[in-house]
Structures are given as structure tokens and as C-alpha cells.
């Protein structure tokens, strides 16, 4: 028996710092979108790694493991979408190579690039409240995460609820720009 040819899935790619509200928005999107979507957060992939062994690595080895993990995540996203699954991806593009790899690996897929913004002051408050994040991590990511150019859709969770952000995203899906942000970014990278 062979797998039936399917349409490729749509990828709603939420990019924002740690603690910006991406996972909360993703949860709300799963409740309100008209088709079944999977929430594919990078944290789920990170949670699969043997934590004790990771703690024993020296900084160079750890950096290599984390780079392979992230590259594998990009390919898992592509594989799920190529099999016809619609996805809400929850990610932090805090290093340029991650974006460049995603542009390559997700080429040919319907990617909606969504910027999830939040003020630095609110990010610091959330990190402190959560207690499971390194203080200042989100602030350190802030500049790089949103440095790549325009998004297809943006939301700001500083004062807007995850539900309202999800509703804005859903309503905006019918009015997406063409070409899409990932396609524009891909073209700009090829011109360099």
C-alpha cells in the first residue's frame, strides 16, 4: 500500500523571544482554526533529549548538539508539512543560520511568518514569574529575533491576550500578502 499524494500543509510560523506568548497563542489557534492543525514547538523536541547527558557536555559539544537539534527540528517541520499536515510552529529565530536553514528546508511550502512581539519590561516580568527561564534571556534575544524584515502577520502580547492574538491571526489568513515574507526573505538571501 502506498501513501496517497496529499496537498502540502500550511505552516503558521510563530517567531518571538522566549516568554513572548508563542505557545499560548498556538494553543488558542488550535481551538479556533477551521482545519485540524498540529502545534509543533521546538521545546517538545528539546524535551526529548537526555537531559543528564546534555549537562555533562563541555560548551563546544553542547553547542554542536543544540545546532543538530535545531536543524533536525527544521526538517521535522518540513516533513510534517510535506505529508499534508497543517502546523503551528513555535520557534525563536535567535541566530541567523536558523532562519537561513528554515528558508532552505521549508522552500516550496505555504509558510505564514508571524511575528510575536512583547515589550522588554513585560518579558522580564514573565521570566521572573515563570521561574524556569534564565533571567534576561528574552531581552538578549529581542534584537536578533525580529531583525529579519517584515512578517506576514504581527501581534503584540504586551497587553493583548493570546486569544485575541489568535483571532487576529485567523482573520488575517484571508488577506495574506504576496509574495509571502519567507519567499521575499529567500529572494533577498539569494541576491546577496
UniProtKB/TrEMBL annotation:
Q: Which Pfam families match?
A: CPT
Reading the lineage from the top rank, the first entry is Bacteria
Name of the featured protein: Chloramphenicol phosphotransferase
Amino acid at each position: 500500500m502506498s501513501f496517497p499524494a496529499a496537498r502540502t500543509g500550511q505552516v503558521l510560523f510563530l517567531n518571538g523571544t522566549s516568554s513572548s506568548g508563542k505557545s499560548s497563542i498556538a494553543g488558542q489557534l488550535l481551538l479556533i482554526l477551521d482545519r485540524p492543525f498540529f502545534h509543533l514547538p521546538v521545546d517538545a523536541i528539546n524535551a526529548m533529549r537526555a537531559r543528564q547527558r546534555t549537562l555533562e557536555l563541555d560548551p563546544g559539544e553542547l553547542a554542536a548538539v543544540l545546532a543538530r537539534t535545531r536543524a533536525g527540528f527544521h526538517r521535522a517541520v518540513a516533513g510534517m508539512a510535506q505529508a499534508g499536515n497543517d502546523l503551528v510552529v513555535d520557534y525563536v529565530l535567535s541566530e541567523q543560520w536558523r532562519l537561513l536553514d528554515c528558508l532552505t528546508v521549508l522552500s516550496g511550502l505555504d509558510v505564514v511568518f508571524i511575528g510575536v512581539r512583547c515589550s522588554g519590561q513585560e518579558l522580564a516580568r514573565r521570566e521572573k514569574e515563570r521561574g524556569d527561564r534564565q533571567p534576561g534571556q528574552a531581552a538578549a534575544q529581542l534584537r536578533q529575533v525580529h531583525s529579519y524584515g517584515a512578517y506576514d502577520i504581527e501581534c503584540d502580547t504586551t497587553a493583548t491576550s493570546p486569544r485575541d492574538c489568535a483571532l487576529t491571526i485567523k482573520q488575517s489568513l484571508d488577506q495574506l500578502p504576496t509574495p509571502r515574507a519567507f519567499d521575499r526573505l529567500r529572494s533577498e538571501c539569494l541576491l546577496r
